Amino acid sequence: MRALPTVQRIVLHIAVATVVLLAITLAAPERLIMFDRVQPLAITALVLGALLAEIDPTMRRFGLSQGCSGYAVAAFALSAAALWALASALPGMQATLAGVIAGAVLMMLTGGAVYTLLDEQDPPKKHRRG
C-alpha cells in the first residue's frame, strides 16, 4: 500500500485525535480530560496529530522502524507526555493521571490503526525459484 503524503497524514491524525479527545471528554463519567473551551481542544488535537503523524517517518529516517509494535510504543509515550504537558500548560484543559493514560492508550490504538491501514509497509514478497 502506498504511504500518504505528509500533509494528508497529519490532517488524518489530527482528525483522529479530535475524535478521541471528544470521546474521552464526553463519554467518560469521571471527567478524565476536560476542556473549558474549544481552543485547548483544538491545540491538543493539533499537537497530538502532528506528533503521531511524524512517528513513522522519523523512525525510518533513523533506521528504527519496528513496524506496528515500534509505532505503538512511541505513540503511547509521546501521547502521554504531550497530554500531561498540555494539561499543565494550557489554560482551559485539565487531565487526571487516569485521563492521560486512557488518552494515550486510545491515541496509540487509533493511531496504530491508521498506521497499519495506510503507512505500514507491505511485507516483502517471496520469490519462488523455479
Kindly summarize this structure in a few lines:
The protein has 130 residues and is mainly α.
Q: Which segments are poorly predicted (pLDDT under 50) over 5 or more consecutive residues?
A: none
Mean of residue pLDDT? 84
Topology as H/E string? HEHHHEH
Sum up the overall morphology in one term: elongated
Q: End-to-end span in angstroms? A: 28 Å
Largest sheet: 2 strands, antiparallel
Notable characteristics:
130 residues, mainly alpha, 5 helices, elongated
Walkthrough of the structure:
The chain has 130 residues and is mostly helical. It has one domain. A two-stranded antiparallel sheet has the order 1-2. It starts with 5 loop residues before the first helix and ends in an 11-residue tail after the last helix.
List the helices and strands and how they pair.
Layout: H1 6-27, E1 33-35, H2 38-53, H3 55-61, H4 67-89, E2 93-95, H5 97-119
Antiparallel strand pairs: 1-2
